[in-house]
Amino acid sequence: MVNLGTHATGCVSLRGSCNGLLLVDVGEDDFHLWNPLTREDRNLPSLPGVVFGLGYDEVNEDCKVIFSFEIVTKHEIMMRYMIYSLRAEMWREIEADIALDQPQHDSPLALNGALHWFSYREDNSRKWPWWYLVVFDVASEKFREIDLPNKLAEGFPVQRLSVDGCLGIVESKSEWRTYDFWVLNNYEDEGSWTLLYHVPSSQPIYFERFHTGFFWLSEKGVILVLQHFKLLLFDPKDCSVKEVFR
Hints:
The chain is mainly beta. Helices cover 0% and strands 54% of the residues. It has strands at residues 2-3, 13-18, 21-25, 31-35, 40-43, 50-57, 62-72, 77-85, 90-94, 109-111, 114-121, 130-137, 142-147, 155-163, 166-173, 179-184, 193-199, 212-216, 223-227, 230-235, 240-245. Strands 1-5-4-3-2 form a five-stranded antiparallel sheet, with no helix packed on it. Strands 6-7-8-9 form a four-stranded antiparallel sheet, with no helix packed on it. Pfam families: FBA_3.
């Protein structure tokens, strides 16, 4: 990596983190791997497409960036996927046995050696799209899908989070002011989704759907909430809120 001094001090978008490295987007398909401690920076070779996130391959001790792009022909649109290996310092295409329908391009959740993000399919028979999770195993470089709870039919999944090492999601109900917290108890069993907490609209604070971040904090179920530059401690058992920082 090359030390570029103050190169990365401007306004950037964080797209992922891995072993002390940050994947930042400075605009116009310009992505960098940046070490904020040493201020070392590596500019990734530019490719037109979508960068999904950064993950760590524990088997090969390598940081990898997952990237996708479209090939448009007269008859179809084909998705292609590439990996940038920090160890090999190069892009390479990988085979994907899954089609990402409408992936959400926020930073994925890194958990259990995999990256997780939401995607959805349009379904004319339903009022709401069919949401699911796309999982990318960083070591094997394989995709898989995880269905969300069946009850998530009229909701909107707003965030993935780690719940004591298990995969969890936060769902915003159609009225926007109601939230459900779910956890997948068995990673290999999609039927093991459990509703942990239901947060009613009568809560003492309004959690805005697109301006709120939830972070699991303790085994007692207390949740750290980031909203509009304020840090809050929220206990969903009694809907109590304590301001930590603003």
